[in-house]
Amino acid sequence: SRRGAIKVxxxxxxRSPQGTIFVPFHFAEAAANVLTLDRVDTRAKIxxxxxTAVSIxxxxxxxxWDEGYERPLLERGAIKDPVQIH
Length: 86
Fold this sequence. Notes:
86 residues, little secondary structure
């Protein structure tokens, strides 16, 4: 975003509408909060962390990344719908 940058693993799924992303933002220390606007919702009086324009770029995994990291999640059924894990 214009405010900051983060590196995260991406889970491509049909659960989010095309053209949108979701990054957890609930906790103040969450990485997504560095991307969002420093603004308060005028009605709710809470930080406006729920929307901001971003640009997404692919990067190579860090050296030593375990490509099979997600397999146990798939085997345990923790991932419910067919997805591509990047």
